[in-house]
Recover the amino acids of this structure.
């Protein structure tokens, strides 16, 4: 039996999807299966540094939506593949159009979220506005996604939203649709104090200054502004800083920071390495994730695994994913987040939350996830 995974176009730099594909590849191999990872070839994309705008987007489209489907057809027609002993899996729902070029009876796909799709249909709570071309693209993706026979959603919330988008689909066609929670795609763990001190200094931090942490992009749905408002709401009750790790602080957020007079209490760490992320999680006073919309929300469980107190939205799927190991608040209420954080100054309360986070993390072991993917494809460990 050979497992063929379909990954993402490398120039798009979708790091989480790259890690997810590699995790599946490693998991199937450890289960005893020969595994291949096929990626859309980079031909026209070599001539651009930006595949998300301008001519670069169109060059990438040629690679992804014209050349790679041809490649798939040729591989199946002329490659030495015994389809009776093969399984295919598309690792990212955004590549659902590839299902039209693969044998559906032996092909699965993972749906990580339907945010962009819902945005294309005008749902404001997705916080993903779509251009006219984006509307066409996302509807095309959905039409192909609904044809999947074997489908895994990464949360019950995402499954529910997908079902809401397919009310006219015969329920029998959904019988192989199931929820498979994401697993940790890298190691996350509490870093020892002596290492924390050294690592923070190397990143330009003062180890003696407490900080709130946010990890992610500057997309509006990530709601970075709440941490600024939260810091302002805390006033003199807590003297620390906010660290934004991931994308750089954009101009709108900087204006908000300056309006609150907090410029000297906010720092940014752009594109931290994995070991730096683990240190940041382990050392922060709390990880704050006030997102408006997610498909899963990996950072929540990453922080829990590092022994960190987590404050996050009361908007699904954050409560589903974080379980009892986080405090949940309205993502529009900075004062509520501030008050919740102050309760963690009671050490017993803080430790109870951290221990609940460790317990919650047991649900996301890679072995559990892989057993469910094997079952999805009607396979067993060798």
């Amino acid at each position: 039996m050979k497992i063929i995974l379909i990954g993402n176009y490398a120039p798009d730099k979708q790091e989480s999807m790259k890690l997810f594909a590699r995790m599946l590849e490693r998991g199937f191999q450890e289960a005893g299966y020969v595994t291949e990872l096929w990626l859309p070839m980079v031909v026209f994309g070599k001539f651009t540094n930006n595949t998300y705008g301008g001519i670069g987007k169109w060059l990438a489209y040629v690679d992804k939506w014209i050349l790679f489907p041809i490649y798939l057809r040729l591989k199946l027609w002329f490659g030495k593949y015994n389809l009776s002993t093969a399984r295919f899996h598309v690792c990212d729902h955004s590549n659902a159009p590839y299902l039209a070029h693969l044998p559906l009876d032996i092909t699965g796909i993972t749906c990580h979220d339907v945010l962009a799709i819902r945005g294309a249909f005008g749902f404001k709570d997705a916080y993903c506005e779509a251009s006219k071309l984006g509307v066409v693209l996302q509807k095309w993706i959905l039409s192909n996604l609904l044809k999947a026979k074997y489908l895994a959603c990464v949360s019950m919330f995402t499954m529910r939203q997908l079902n809401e988008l397919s009310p006219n689909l015969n329920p029998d066609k959904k019988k192989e649709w199931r929820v498979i929670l994401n697993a940790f795609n890298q190691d996350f763990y509490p870093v020892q104090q002596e290492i924390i001190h050294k690592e923070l200094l190397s990143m330009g931090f003062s180890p003696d200054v407490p900080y709130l942490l946010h990890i992610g992009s500057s997309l509006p749905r990530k709601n970075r502004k709440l941490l600024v408002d939260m810091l302002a709401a805390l006033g003199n009750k807590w003297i620390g800083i906010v660290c934004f790790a991931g994308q750089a602080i954009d101009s709108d957020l900087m204006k908000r920071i300056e309006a609150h007079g907090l410029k000297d209490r906010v720092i940014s760490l752009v594109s931290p390495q994995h070991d730096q992320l683990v240190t940041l999680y382990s050392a922060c006073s709390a990880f704050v994730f006030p997102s408006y919309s997610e498909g899963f929300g990996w950072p929540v469980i990453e922080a829990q695994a590092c022994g960190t107190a987590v404050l996050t939205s009361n908007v699904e799927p954050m409560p589903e994913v974080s379980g009892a190991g986080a405090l949940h608040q309205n993502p529009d209420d900075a004062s509520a987040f501030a008050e919740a954080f102050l309760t963690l100054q009671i050490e017993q309360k803080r430790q109870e939350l951290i221990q609940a986070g460790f317990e919650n993390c047991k649900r996301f072991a890679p072995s559990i996830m892989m057993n469910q993917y094997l079952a999805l494809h009607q396979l067993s460990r060798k």
Q: What stands out?
A: The CA atoms of residues 13 and 124 lie 26 Å apart. The chain is about 40% helix and 15% strand. The chain has two domains: 2-183+366-376, 193-363.
